[in-house]
Design goal:
The chain is α/β, with parallel strands linked by helices. It is built from 10 helices and 9 strands. The strands form 2 sheets. It has a 7-stranded mixed sheet. It has a two-stranded antiparallel sheet with strand order 1-8. α7 packs across α10. The chain binds S-adenosylmethionine (SAM).
Length: about 260
């Protein structure tokens, strides 16, 4: 069956056999593994996953026109869910699961944010092996004092250790995308800074980085009536720009913010 790729669903299918194998090998899948694939598409990556014989495999694909094709290939080996991953309710069990996704570029950061928020001590995935548009991956792994550093870096690096595998050339996909891609591997940190609600971290970083050219005195004064006390307590230089602050400083600011609103 010939598949016409839908741009609106970010359908650029990975066709390079070596890279497909390399991605799946990163999972170290064995017969006890639980695996989820987000956006299996025409099943190119799925075929390689299935060869490793995982105990459970769940495929979540939004495009209902691809579901027949997936069913014809994998119905005896996988549970195939026709759903938008972003609309899926929280009852999906991620515990100890290896999650793969050659993500649709238009919603890749939303999917990552959802995975971060779903990751709890009692529902803790083993690792994420995800492909992003290179520019987005650069922002996810960026360090302070670089142009790419911002909200996405701070939120992604909060609960997860992130490693870059490599950049992938446009020619490895059909249809060929306009941009390069990057594979990232995420593993949950054993210890991470305790924040009550991740929405507060999203709010705090939003205030700082919507004023990214301003000195941090301005966002601090928006968040706190007593911003000079907070900046003293956290040892902040109010003349710095947001990009200079480490992720840890943002987590500390978030904790102060949570204290101030309770
Ligand atoms: N895994 C396949 C591969 O590597 O060739 C396809 C990758 S393609 C970049 C992204 C896939 O995600 C498409 O099949 C698309 O239909 C699906 N998709 C797009 N938005 C989605 C969503 N919100 N939830 C689940 N799947 C989605």
């Amino acid at each position: 069956m010939l598949v016409r790729a839908k741009k609106s669903l970010g359908q650029n299918f990975l066709i390079d056999e070596n890279i497909l194998k390399e991605i799946v090998n990163l999972g170290n899948i064995d017969s006890k593994s639980q695996v989820i694939e987000i956006g299996p598409g025409t099943g190119n990556l799925t075929k390689e996953i299935v060869k490793k014989n995982p105990k459970d495999l769940i495929l979540i694909e939004k495009d209902r026109f691809l579901i027949d094709k997936l069913n014809s290939q994998f119905s005896d080996k996988a549970k195939i869910i026709n759903s938008d991953f972003l609309e899926l309710k929280n009852h999906l069990n991620f515990n100890n699961t290896i999650i793969f996704g050659n993500l649709p570029y238009n919603v890749s950061t939303q999917i990552l944010t959802k995975l971060i928020n779903l990751n709890k001590t009692n529902n803790n995935f083993l690792k994420l092996i995800l492909m992003f548009q290179k520019e987005v991956a650069d922002r996810i792994i960026a360090k302070p004092n670089t142009n790419n550093y911002g909200r996405l870096s701070i939120i992604s690096q909060w609960k997860l250790d992130i490693e870059k595998l490599k950049d992938i050339n446009e020619n490895c996909f059909r249809p060929k995308p306009k941009v390069k891609s990057t594979i990232l591997i995420f593993k949950p940190k054993n210890n991470f800074f305790k924040i009550k609600n991740s929405k507060n971290l999203e709010h705090v970083t939003n205030i700082f980085f919507s004023l990214r050219r301003k000195m941090i005195k301005k966002p601090l004064s928006i968040l706190f009536g007593n911003y000079d006390l907070v900046s003293k307590k956290l040892n902040l230089n109010i003349n710095d720009r947001p990009q200079k602050l480490s992720p840890l400083k943002f987590y500390e600011i978030c904790r102060e913010y949570e204290r101030s609103i309770n």
